[in-house]
Structures are given as C-alpha cells and as structure tokens.
Amino acid sequence: MLGTEQVNLIPRMITPLLEGVESIRVTDQVAKSMGLVDNQIVRGVVEDRQGLARLILNNRDFELKSSKKFKPGDVIEFRVKQSRSGMTLQAVSTEPTTTSSTSTSINSLLSGGDTAKILSLFYRPSQPSSLAKLFSPESINKIMTQIGEKSFDLKMNQLMSSMRSFSPEMARAAMQNSGLFGESMLSKQSVNRSDLKQFLRTILNFISANSPDRIMLNQAIDEIESNQLEAMYSQKNQGISYNFVIPFSDSDPVEINIEAEEADVTDTDNKVGRDWEEDIDDLERLSRNTTTPQNWVVNLYTDSRELGEIWSKATLKSEMSVEMILWAADQKVFEIAKSGEQFLGELFSGFGISLGKFVVLNAERPIIEKSLTGPGQVLDVRT
User: Fold this and answer.
1) 0.85 surpassed by pTM
2) Alpha carbon of 105 to those of 17, 79, 99: distances in Å?
3) Nearest residue to 241 (alpha-carbon basis) of 278, 198, 272
4) Residue 98: pLDDT above 60?
C-alpha cells in the first residue's frame, strides 16, 4: 500500500510535520497537569527569555532547540502523540500546498482513499504490539494450522529466528526482514526476498473474511507501516527510530527499538542522517551525515512464558564500549541475569566491544523523561 512516492507526499497535505523541529518530550505528570491527550492539537508561542528563544505552551516554558529558525511572536502548533517511550509534542503546519503538480498527485491519491489511512497510521495511538501478539507461539501456530498445506509455500521458516542459535547475522537478517524496508526492496527489484509485511499480506489471502484472525493480521500490518512512517519522520529530523519485532520459532517474540541519542563527547566519525531506505545492507552508514555526535541505543522487551517480562537498554558508545541496564520482574530471572555479567562481557569482547557497565534491577522498567535528566535539572531526594 505504501509506495515510496506516497509516503513522502501524503503527509504534506494536511497538517504536515514541520521538518527540522524536534519533538518535545513531556512527562506523564506534566502532561496530566496540562490536560494533554493523544492526538490533541495545542498551540505554543515563541518568546524571548533573557536572550533565549523559549516556547511557551499553556503557561509552561519549554526548550526550543531549533530556536534559530524562529523569532519572538511566532506561533507553532503541536500534535500530542502517545508512544512507547512516553508522550511527545510533534510540530505541525497548516499552510496549504500550492504547486499544481503536487495538487494533481494529491487529488489522485485522495480518490484512492489512501490519505485517511496514512494519516491514521502516522498518528496511531500507543498500544501493545500487535506483531508480538500475532507471533506468540499459540497465535501463529493456530493461524498456520488453519491455513494447512498452503503454509508450506509461505516459507515462514526463513522469517523466524532461533533463540538457541541466535547470532549477529540473524539479528541483521531479522531487521532486513522486519517489513520496514519492503518498498525499498521492491524498488530495487529484490523480488526473491520476502519480509514480514509481505508474509502477513499473503496469509490474508488464505483467511476467510469473517475470521477474527483477519483483524489481528491487519493490526500487525498497520503496526509495521506506522513504524515505517515514524522511521521516516525521525530521519527527516536528523534522527533515528527503528521499531520492529523479531519472531522466534522456539521462543516468544522480542520487541526492538533502535534510536540515536546525543553523545557526551565530540566524535566526528559517529553521525546520523542518511536516507533510511538506503541503509538496509549496512546500518552503520547511517552514522556519517551530521556533525552531532551520537550513541546507538537498543531497547528490547519480551514477555516470556518461562522468564516473565524483561526489558533491557544497551547504549553503544563511539569508542566501542557498551553500557547495559536490564530490568527483570521475576526474582529468579534477576538472580540469573546478575550472575551472567562475566559471560556477557566475554561475548562482547569477541566483537571488539568492552562492557563498560552492567546493571540488573529486579523491577519493571520505568518511563523517565529525558529532558529531566540533563544538566541543570534538580532531583528531589527527600524521604
């Protein structure tokens, strides 16, 4: 459904996101006090505060990193978006498009009914992963049993990884097959390569119209396409955001989030910003197009039948060292993870990466607002 031309064109029709304006993260407490809800449109005004351009929204002062692009008195509208990482404000614009060529293309897309669908994907509310639910052993086995002999033609084993023999090469293949790069592969005529989105669309052909499994399949496809749009928006704002699910044949699926965050030191060899569709074969090339030093951050989540809920955050530093935090809700899993630090360090060492820090917590992973942990912030430690 989402060709490369459509994805780039349609969001400019109605309140497109302002390119170059960073999203503003908002804590749950602040969002509640401001009365913010998902998909709400709010308006802020740029004011001069002691020589600095600040955004004033609902009588609250926010940092405006793109301050050089605005002057005092400018009005910016934001759409509230609830995502996996918390609530954010994303800048939008209401200026109409005037070029005749664009209008012609837009009208043709409108007649096809694609506009509302793409906008709904772009502003898809935060919710549990439909892909993870679909690829849970009980769900996917039920669907494949329903398909019967036709399932042999789908070559599902090529898209399912093995937890017992998982390797960096399998992780690379899982990202390539995630569905994020489907249109790019088609444009490069990679007809022999399948991915999760193509796989799910093929399954739909074998499922009866009144089957409840069709709803689950369509929701999973929507999740992939929503992740595609989020990746493109992040790339246009000189950022990185890849969300996908790795299905396993011998374990529960794992949800993956890959993003970039500003590094503490300057490193001109670690940069981001390339066209995300051009980086299927070498993700490292994404780090060569901006002057802002970046660290790679990989977040994982799984709800395992044997181990319970597990979260982890790995921050890969530019000097080839990694820091890891792992959260385990189960006490036994917490103890097992603590005892595995030496083994984990040896694994990273085999790839030339040193394990700089490894922290294991017996708790659920909290949602922490990034803007509250920077320089100058105050932490209340009263008990």
Assistant:
1) no
2) 19, 25, 10
3) 272
4) no
